[in-house]
Amino acid sequence: MQYRLPEDHPEFRIVIVTQEDPFYIPEFFRAFFARYAAPPADETPRIPIRVAGVMIQRPLGNRTAKGLAKRIWRLYGTGGFVVMGIRYVWRRLLRSLGPLAPTVAAYSRRAGVPLLDFAPNDANGEPFLDYLRRERIDLVVSVSASQIFKTPVLNTPPLGCINLHNAPLPRYRGMLPNFWQLYHGETRSVLTIHQMVENLDQGDILRQAETPIDDRMSLERLMKTTKRRSAAVLWATLVEMTRDGVETRPLPADEGSYFTWPTREQARELRRRGRRLL
Fold first, then answer.
1. CA-CA distance, 190 to 229, in Å (whole number)?
2. Mind listing the pLDDT tens digit for each residue in 4-32?
3. Residue 212 CB-half CA count within 13 A
4. At what angle do helices 264-272 and 65-94 cross, to 10 degrees?
5. Do residues 228 and 25 lie in contact, with contact meaning Cβ atoms separated by under 8 Å?
6. Where are the domains of the chain?
7. Cα-flanking dihedrals φ and ψ of residue 46, to 5°?
8. In this structure, are residues 42 and 3 in contact, taking their beta carbons and an 8 Å threshold?
9. Residue 247 — left, alpha, or beta (φ > 0 → left; ψ -120 to 50 → alpha)?
10. How much is the pTM?
C-alpha cells in the first residue's frame, strides 16, 4: 500500500488516539506539536496537515486506579513506587495550571487541537466512527492507544489507521517494549510505524528509526528520548504522505516475539544487571 494524498486534496486531516499517561506520553505531544506549529524548513508539508482532534483513553486500559498502581509497583518496586507516587501527586497539582500544565490535554489545547469526548472514548464505538465520516478524517494515528482497533474503524478513514510501537517489529510485540529491549541488552531501540490490523502490533511497515541506547541510560530516560524521537519521525512521515507518499513494506514473516508487563522479578533482574529504572 502507498500512503499518499491525491494531488487536489485540500487538507490532510488526522485524529490521534492516545492515553493521559502523566509521565512519558506528554513528552511525545510536546515535541510533536512543536513541529506542528513550526515545521522544520525541510519538513514543510505540500498541503496543510490538520490534527482535527485528540481522543484520550484510560491509562493502560486499566478500569481502576488500583490496577494501574499495582502494575507500577511490580515494575519499580516499593522505593520506586513511592517516588512515582510523589511525582504523580506533583503532576496532579500541576494540572491546576490549566492550559500551562504538562499534560496531553494541555499540549493539545495550546496547539489549538480539540479534545474529542465520546463518553466513553471508545475507538470502536459508533459515535467515533460517525465523527470520522462526518469530519472526513483521512488517517487515525494510535499513540499508545488503550484499545485494539477493530475492522470498522480500521476501514473508515481513506488511509486507515497507523500505530507507533517502540520496537523493531515483529520483535518485542506487546507491552513496554523499551523495558524488554533494555532487558535483552539491545544497543538500539527501534521505532516502528506500521499499518494497523486487528492482530496486535502487526500490519505493513511504513517506517523504522533507531535510537541509540548507551550504557548509562535508564529506562525512564530511554522512554522519554524515544517519545521525542517518535514525534519527529511521525511528523516526517506525515509530511512525506503529502509529497511523494510512503510505500509500505511487509512485516517480516518470522514469528518475532511478544512480551507482557514485566514481573517484579524481571524488574529486579534488570537492576541487578546495572540498569536503573528511574
1. 10
2. 998 889 999 999 999 988 789 999 999 99
3. 3
4. 60
5. no
6. 2-272
7. -65, -40
8. no
9. beta
10. 0.92
- Dig out the grid coordinates for 268 from the structure: 529486579
Distance CA 144, CA 92 (A): 21
* 215-273 per-position pLDDT tens digit: 999 999 999 999 999 999 999 999 999 999 999 999 988 878 999 999 999 999 999 99
Is residue 128 within 8 A of residue 55, CB to CB? The reply is yes
Query: Which amino acid, one-letter code, is at 41?
Result: A
Strand 2-3 vs strand 173-174: parallel, antiparallel, or unpaired?
unpaired
C-alpha to C-alpha distance for 5 and 240, rounded to whole angstroms? 10
Q: Which residue has the cell 528509526?
A: 209
Q: Residue 68: what residue type?
A: L
Q: Does domain 2-272 have CATH number 3.40.50.170?
A: yes
Query: Which is it for the CA torsion 53, 136, 153, 162, positive or negative?
Result: negative
Q: Which H, E and C letters describe the chain, residue by residue?
A: CEECCCCCCCCEEEEEEEECCCCCHHHHHHHHHHHHHCCCHHHCCCCCEEEEEEEEECHHHCCCHHHHHHHHHHHHHHHHHHHHHHHHHHHHHHHHHHHHCCCHHHHHHHCCCCEECCCCCCCCCHHHHHHHHHCCCCEEEECCCCCCCCHHHHHCCCCCEEEEECCCCCCCEECCHHHHHHHCCCCEEEEEEEECCCCCCCCCEEEEEEEECCCCCCHHHHHHHHHHHHHHHHHHHHHHHHCCCEECECCCCCCCCEECCCCHHHHHHHHHCCCCCC
Cell output for 272: 541487578
